[in-house]
Amino acid sequence: MKIQLINHACYVVDTGSIRILCDPWLSGDIFDRGWRHLQDNNIDINDIDYDYIWISHEHPDHFSPVDLAKIKGAKTFFYQETRDKKVKKWLESKGHTVIEMEDWKPFNLPDNSKLTVTKVSDDSWMSIQTEDKTMINLNDCEITTSKQLEEIKSYLGNIDVLMTQFSFANWIGNNDDPEANKQCRDNILKRVGLQTDKLTPDYVIPFASFVKFAHRDNDWMNDWTVKLDEACVLIKDRNSIPVPMYMNQTWEVDKELPEDMSFLWYVKNSHHIKFWDRDVPFAEVLYEFDLYQKKIKKQNSWLAIRLLKWFGLLPPTSIYLDDNNIGIDFCIVNGIKPTRTHKDKCDIRMKTQTFINVLKYEWGRGTLTVNGRFHANYKTMWRFFRQTKIAYANNVGKRVPLSLPLTELLYSYKPKWRTENGNT
């Protein structure tokens, strides 16, 4: 078995006769200009040799429509079963075949190796088992308990190679809260340690964290990222062999480790220039809200939403738009109204363009929590995330009232440092 790291979370696993390309994000900035590659390798997807493609989940650092649209000819994809079938339909519209993978049910590849894909929330992990080797890629699945890992270990048996994310990929608290920032990075290291302890792999490839927080609103988060050498020390202390890899390096399992070129990830280059936003008139917010509300009405029971509002379960949220120096009360039922609430007392602060991205795209709220381009009032931020939860749930095929549970709406978002605390 050979593994070739392409970039970030993208790699090719070679069983000896079959090559599977995984999570190809090869070019461009993503998450509303919040991320870009730590280093660019300027590779075209058509220059990669592969037989199949596996996509773990819909986030653009794993599912990149820009790169996938470049594919010449029809390909076969593996993807998790989802409620909305959005990724499946998009790929099929491009002429590709999509094999939907059931949890824990292995797919027999033509060379008799087995591919297993299993969902974890909206994400998924994959494993490949050949006659003599087993690898598993947990990427950025939130697998944080002994019980979860013991179930995987029981299913796979001996694991030769674990591939896992080694740094955070989301908001880590406000930029004036170093305690929360540190807690978030520490949680990731605890997760890597727990995964290594419980799965007992011979080798661990730390990956899927080779990104630059690219906007002037979130550039400060780069100071808190876990570096590759830190992860490798942790893995070694757990009696597994760390395998740090650089772009386009290939390693054959159980053979000599690739040359350690990991320092090259952190060499500054010319594309490390921070993005900034254009000036956005407030009228554009009102225009986008009108479209936002119409989409919600179309996809949900408006009566049910109005009842939630009437029972006090959808209180308005106060948002301060820093560049326009204006505070607003935002409610999906009653609309947008100016507020005199001081910016430090608002539930959340962000730039106008950032807020428009939340309104414009159903996945916009998810983008916001990943790119971290906001400042929140920890005590009251729940109001913002509850108000924006319905549109965000619509993005994955959930609707009010039939398929969006009330409990999911009420507990719409919990900061990572409060929920992923290393408990076993």
DSSP helical segment count: 13
Q: How many beta strands in the DSSP annotation?
A: 21
C-alpha end-to-end distance = 32 Å
Residues in helices, as a percent range: 25-40%
Largest pleated sheet: 7 strands, mixed
For the biggest β-sheet, the strand order reads 7-6-5-3-2-1-16
Structural class category: alpha/beta
Task: Explain what this protein looks like in three dimensions.
With 424 residues, this protein is α/β, with parallel strands linked by helices. It is 28% helix and 22% strand. The chain has 13 helices and 21 strands. The protein has helices spanning 65-68, 86-93, 146-156, 178-199, 228-237, 282-299, 302-310, 352-360, 364-371, 382-387, 389-394, 406-410, 416-419, and strands spanning 2-7, 10-14, 19-22, 35-37, 52-54, 76-80, 97-101, 107-108, 114-120, 123-129, 134-139, 161-165, 203-207, 211-213, 241-242, 250-252, 317-321, 326-331, 335-339, 348-350, 375-376. It has a seven-stranded mixed sheet, covered by helices on one side. A hairpin with a 4-residue loop joins strand 17 and strand 18. The longest helix is centred in the middle third of the chain and has 22 residues, at 178-199. The protein is globular. The two termini are 32 Å apart.
